[in-house]
Design goal:
Jelly Rolls, about 5% helix, single chain, mainly beta, 16-stranded antiparallel sheet, 16 strands
């Protein structure tokens, strides 16, 4: 079964339990994000979302914009060339000075085990956190959480490092984490790559472009998880996120497609 990653990526676009090809619209115009698949973190469907993120403590407030595309500062768009774009930008309010984009399948799709793949072009800038992950469907802290893409600005060092993490609660209810720091030979922020997680009973493996880069058999969850995609902004002491005041804006996470398979 070690070749599942290559086998899944070779399947046609319609294969699998969940599939969204954001490059499928040939018209070249802005399309409505499929509300049967994706919702904002506030549960609102539509053509554009705003997630205003506090640069100090990371609190997020999600809002839906109803303005022409050229007036959007931070938006989620479906375009034939660039795919889904999650944009982080400066220029919010005094309390929430930065904006970011987020969508998830919290009320539309969740699954236990499978192969979860995202084709993406990630940004790399201080304070910017591009992310794709699986989150538990119950509980306020969304644990367990399995990273598919986790490349926070300062820590990723120009897009050359990927954080492969699993956060979960142990038998006593305490939050735990296992993780691997994977170094890429080239910057992941310079082009398209396929990021994937193969989640099985008792084992999780992480993959980039079909290559296994990390694995764990510790704390592997057995509960349904939903997909979450985001490009957000926050600030810390510089070791993980960095200072967004040092970044150029906007910063964009581009996603071509998301696909999910399950073994029979």
């Amino acid at each position: 079964m070690a070749s599942l990653a290559a086998a899944c990526l070779a399947l046609p676009a319609h294969a699998g339990l969940f599939n969204n090809n954001f490059n499928a619209d040939p018209s070249g115009v802005l399309t409505i994000l499929d509300p049967a698949k994706w919702v904002s973190s506030g549960g609102v469907g539509g053509t554009g979302y705003i997630s205003l993120t506090d640069a100090v403590n990371g609190l997020t407030d999600v809002r839906l914009l109803r303005r022409p595309p050229h007036q959007w500062v931070a938006s989620i768009e479906a375009r034939p060339v660039s795919g889904l774009t999650l944009t982080a930008d400066a220029g919010g309010t005094a309390d929430l000075p930065y904006r970011g984009g987020m969508v998830q399948t919290s009320t539309t799709f969740a699954q236990t085990y499978g192969y979860f793949a995202v084709r993406a072009w990630i940004p790399s800038a201080p304070g910017v956190k591009p992310s794709a992950c699986l989150q538990g469907t119950g509980g306020q802290d969304w644990l367990p959480l399995i990273d598919i893409i986790q490349a926070p600005g300062a820590w990723s060092r120009g897009g050359r490092h990927l954080f492969c993490g699993l956060r979960y609660r142990d038998a006593a209810g305490a939050a735990q984490e296992v993780s691997t720091d994977w170094g890429s030979p080239t910057s992941l922020a310079e082009g398209w790559h396929t990021y994937a997680v193969w989640w099985r009973p008792g084992r999780i493996t992480w993959h980039v472009d079909g290559q296994q880069i990390a694995s764990t058999e510790v704390g592997v969850p057995s509960v349904p998880c939903h997909l979450s995609l985001s490009c957000t902004v926050a600030r810390d002491d510089g070791r993980w996120l960095g200072d967004p005041a040092q970044a150029s804006w906007p910063q964009v996470l581009r996603i071509a497609w998301v696909r999910v398979w399950r073994e029979r």
